[in-house]
Amino acid sequence: MKGNKKLTLGLIWSIILRFQMETIMNSTADKNVKKAILELVNSYVLEYIPDPVKNLTSSWYDGTLLAYLIYHQNKSEINISNLLSKTPQERIQFVFDFASKNYQVDYLLEAEDLASSKADEQSIMTYLSSLCASLESYKKKQVKID
């Protein structure tokens, strides 16, 4: 591959994020993707945490926010106390497995990488955009059924 690999990969990440986020944003022109993800995440987790989530890096390394994201729509299926008592890597792996099984969210990250702070913001944004899009899609389907 000729050219700047980092620039090329960055462009690919941007395209992926835009397409994934279109399902949960009214207009991609109105907000940037990072801000949209943070707003959506906060709409799910603020009832469980004292302060709004402000970043897409260190706030995610222990898996607590991921646990609350899936718990929000799956309260009858998830024992949140038990999940929060697990190690960060176990908690993250549970969320990844649950999201894959129940929401068809691909494994875009390794639990070990996220728990050990090796995952970068772009990777976390991509996973969260996929998870949030799936959660929103599922929520809309549930509303139509009810």
UniProtKB/TrEMBL annotation:
Keyword tRNA-binding carried by entry: no
Q: Which residues form the Calponin-homology (CH) domain?
A: 31-136
Q: Where are the transmembrane segments?
A: none
Instruction: Using the record, list the residue span of the signal peptide; answer none if the entry has no such feature.
Output: 1-23
Its keywords, alphabetically, are: Signal
Q: Name one Pfam family in it.
A: CH
Q: Does the keyword Signal apply?
A: yes
> What protein name is recorded for this chain?
Alpha-actinin-like
Q: Which organism is it from?
A: Octopus sinensis
